[in-house]
Amino acid sequence: MQTYDLSERGLRGLNSVLHAQREETNRTGWEVVNPRGSHAIAVGLDAPLEIIVKGSTGYYCAGMNQGATIRVEGSVGPGVAENMMSGSVVVEGDASQYAGATGHGGLLVIKGNASSRCGISMKGIDIVVHGNVGHMSAFMAQAGNLVVCGDAGDALGDSIYEARLFVRGSVKSLGADCVEKEMRPEHVGILEDLLERADLHARPEEFRRYGSARKLYNFDIDNVADY
Amino acid sequence: MCGIVGLFLKDKELEPKLGEMLTQMLITMTDRGPDSAGIAIYGRGKRGKAKLTVQSDKPCQDLDDLAPELGRAVGTEVGIRRVDTHAVLELEAGKVNVARKAVRELRPGIRVMSDGEVIEIYKEVGLPRDVADRFELSRMEGTHGIGHTRMATESAVTTEGAHPYSTGADQCLVHNGSLSNHNDLRRKLMRKGVRIESMNDTEVGAAYLTWKMQNGASLGEALDSSLEDLDGFFTFVVGTRDGFGVLRDPIACKPAVMAETSRYVAFGSEYRALASLPGIENASVWEPEPATVYFWSH
Fold first, then answer.
1. Where do the domains of chain B lie, and which CATH numbers do they carry?
2. What is the CATH number of the domain that holds A159?
3. Nearest CA distance, A193 vs chain B (angstrom)
4. What domain range includes position A127?
5. Which residues partner with B145 through β-bridges?
6. What is the ipTM of this complex?
7. Are strands B119-125 and B111-116 parallel, antiparallel or unpaired?
8. A58 contacts: CB under 8 Å, gap ≥ 6
9. pLDDT, average across residues A89-96
10. What is the pTM assigned to this prediction?
11. What sign has the CA pseudo-torsion B190, B195, B196, B197?
12. Total structural domains within chain A
């Protein structure tokens, strides 16, 4: 395990060192100390590294991740794991707005709460939130799964395409074109797998599934009131 | 963008360090707002006395003989403490309104930053570190304070465009965001006789709250009604005599982080601003909810 002290060696150095590991795969374990809310920690990684961030981070932690496993032992600012392609990101604390935005793949686990716009425009990422999510979560979500073990705020899944949303608690309100859907056996299977990978002991049957009513894919004058 | 910091002390032992802690927080927010910076500091007042904090671009000309001249004009003794371009005038509490008027007549170049029993507002153009140095912010003591670093979007980089804005005796407002209906609201408020001095959106927000409170609303009610009447993005932090309050608009895209320990409650636009506070690693840290008014008071 390598240790990188962010307060001494700086952010640009950290990301350069981590990017360079693509060719030097023997140094896969990294511990980042003194993050002190810094932005853009461990972004753009493109190798199967295992990173532990010892404390809270600012904007865009673990953005554009491809293949790395990143664990934050603290809370994260806006845009954690934004546009993740693969790999996994685990946040021990809370996440600020737009966690996992536009993510194409991989697994994002938030053990606390996520605030507004969690999973906005998600495109295949799986997001599991142990706590609650704020308003406008999964806005324009296109593919992937969002699992919320607590409650969801206003306008969940507004203008959603084909992502699946699973919520155990209450939903304050559903957004345009988002409806509750039947929980079929294949959905229980997907949920079981995600809960297990996210280290959560919850029963899939306690969740409700939400998804697209598919009325707003293309503009239709008959649906104008729903937009 | 813009940066906000706020610190409300529960532990009296920290009061001598308020300025030092706020300075550190303010400087951390430099890259959110390098254009100007300001702070409102709530210190100890004297019973029956009020403080009027004033500023002039020509302090030698405007502030040198101000105290005795103002004293003669309003018929009371006026104390003065000069701090760079600012001065804190101390006088009988009942004379504040006459003194404000008299200052304007005696020295048209002076701007009144704040009035109240305990509040002092200091703000100027420049990097937060330079502004903090000019006012020796790190040496100030008090029970609570609010700071702001500005990245200008809606109006010019000037002292009038800097935050905090006074909203009444011992009250102030700082803002991160932009109000989109400020021109219309400015016209409406000015027609009602409200004084607004700049083209800045936040000044309109502050004037709106002041006007609401002058018409009988409590600060909490005024903030609640701002959710209806103000259009745009905002995270507001308001300072009061006893503490501070936080309000975010319903969309809540402007960041906000709170931290609380047994010794203090702190606000930062980002966690970075809170990272050097004592005991932060064990503090309760959370993000304030949208469209919800929060208050902490002694």
1. 3-44+137-297 (3.60.20.10), 47-117 (3.30.70.120)
2. 2.160.20.60
3. 30
4. 2-226
5. B7, B41
6. 0.91
7. unpaired
8. A37, A38, A39, A40, A41, A76, A77, B270, B271, B272
9. 98
10. 0.93
11. positive
12. 1
Q: Using alpha carbons only, give the angle A21, B271, B244 rounded to the nearest 5 degrees.
A: 175
Q: What is the distance between the alpha carbons of residues B246 and B4, in angstroms, rounded to a whole number?
A: 11
Amino acid at B31: D
What does the pLDDT read at residue A23?
A: 66
Chain B residues close to A38, C-beta within 8 Å: 272
Q: Is A115 at the interface with chain B, CB within 8 A?
A: yes
- A112 touching chain B per CB within 8 A: no
With 70 as the cut, is the pLDDT of residue A56 above it?
yes
Question: Backbone phi, then psi, for A119, in 5-degree steps?
Answer: 70, 25
The pLDDT value recorded for residue B174 is 95
Task: Give the closest-approach CA distance of A38 to chain B in angstroms.
Answer: 7
A58 touches chain B (CB under 8 A): yes
